Each structure stands twice: as structure tokens, then as C-alpha cells.
Amino acid sequence: MRLVPLAFSLIALLGAAMPLRAEWKALSADEDVAVAGKLMIATPKGGWNRSTAKPSARSERWTRDGLALNELTFFAGVAEGEALYFAPLMAKQDLPKFRAQMLPTEIVELFENSNRMILDSSVFAVSAVEPAKLGRFDGVRFSYTYAAQDEGLTRKGEGVAAIVDGKLYLVNFVAPAVHYFDRDISEIRQLVSSLKLRPPKPGAAK
């Protein structure tokens, strides 16, 4: 498979803790995949590829056509006081940190503010927030749009998040608003609905 350049993907804007060159592994269709430190089990349809370059130590990213055209990101087990992403290069301020007592709306704000900083863009708008399930756990679904600085392309995204045993679990999909988001979002929602979370037992060794 030929992956298109990643352009203004978030991965292009993150810090030096990420590999300079991502490697890719094709994922088998309709087979369970242990994701993000094996704390999630996802069952993708065909055509998805997993990147070795991760947004943070508690996440991983997939794409079908290249990160400029679709990104599916899993965050699993984000702990109290941790950020969603590695700090970007030349960051002027610290990224927002997760708190275990966050309300659903505050989780959405954490995601929005983190991405505003990563993208260095004020053109980021949350359009809907509603209750949802992440696996079998109660959570929140949110939709948003953004335009990266100087890119001139609007992207749409949808995330589903839940706090389980004081840790944050979140799945986010983003793609250009023209064609790619609408093409894949039904499949993404099906994947999220079948996702299995495997949070460690309270008190288990880290």
C-alpha cells in the first residue's frame, strides 16, 4: 500500500520523543488487535495500517490512506496528571493534564485545548457533545471541525471517551471534511461499539 504524505497531521507537529521515521504494519481484516499497551482490543475492517510513531506513551495511531487523509488514534490508561500528547517542539506552555475527576464536558475541553496547542490554531470548534459508550463503559461522544494553521483544509473529527478506574480511554477519528470523513465514519462507529477495554485491576503493578 502507498501512503500519502502526512501533511498537517498532528504527528507532524509533535515533539522529538517520537521516531523520526514511522514504520507501518498492515492489520488483518476482522481480526482482534491489542491496542495501546494491550489495554484495548479492536477489530478493524480491511485496509488499516498501524504506525510505530505514537502521539504519546499511552497511545497509538492507525491510517488507511495516509495520515493526511484519515487518522484513527487510541489513547488508553492516561493517568492523573498526564497529557494526551508528547510536548511539541518549541512549546511555549505545558499541555493540559488529565484529572481523574473530570466531568464529560471537561474531557472534551481537555481534548480541544490539547489539539489547539498542538495545531497552533484557534480554528477548532466542537459541534456536538452527547452521552455514549466506549466498549461497555459509560462515556461521552463529541464531534468537531478544525483547520490547521496555513493549510486551508477543513477537517472533521469524532471522539469517544470514558474514564475507567481513574484512567482516561479515548478513541478519535479525523479526516478531511470532503469525502474521507463521511466515507469512513460509519465503519469507525462500528469499531468503537465493538471495542473491548481491558483496564488493569485496581492496585495492579504498573
Characterization of the model:
The chain starts with 23 loop residues before the first strand and ends in a 9-residue tail after the last strand. The protein has an 8-stranded antiparallel beta sheet, sandwiched between helices. Strands 2-3-11 form a 3-stranded antiparallel beta sheet. The radius of gyration is 16 Å and the shape is globular. The protein has 2 helices and 11 strands, in the order ββββββαββββαβ. The protein has 206 residues and is of the alpha+beta class. The relative contact order is 0.16. Mean pLDDT is 87; it is low at 1-20. Helices cover 15% and strands 34% of the residues. The chain has helices spanning 104-119, 180-194, and strands at 24-26, 33-35, 40-42, 49-51, 59-63, 71-78, 124-134, 137-147, 154-164, 167-176, 196-197. It has a single domain, classed as 3-Layer(aba) Sandwich (Protein Transport Mog1p, Chain A), CATH 3.40.1000.
Provide tags for this entry.
206 residues; alpha+beta; Protein Transport Mog1p, Chain A; eight-stranded antiparallel beta sheet; three-stranded antiparallel beta sheet; 2 helices; 11 strands; globular; disordered N terminus
Summarize the structure.
This protein has one domain (10-197): Mog1/PsbP, alpha/beta/alpha sandwich (Protein Transport Mog1p, Chain A), CATH 3.40.1000.10. It is built from two helices and eleven strands, in the order E-E-E-E-E-E-H-E-E-E-E-H-E.
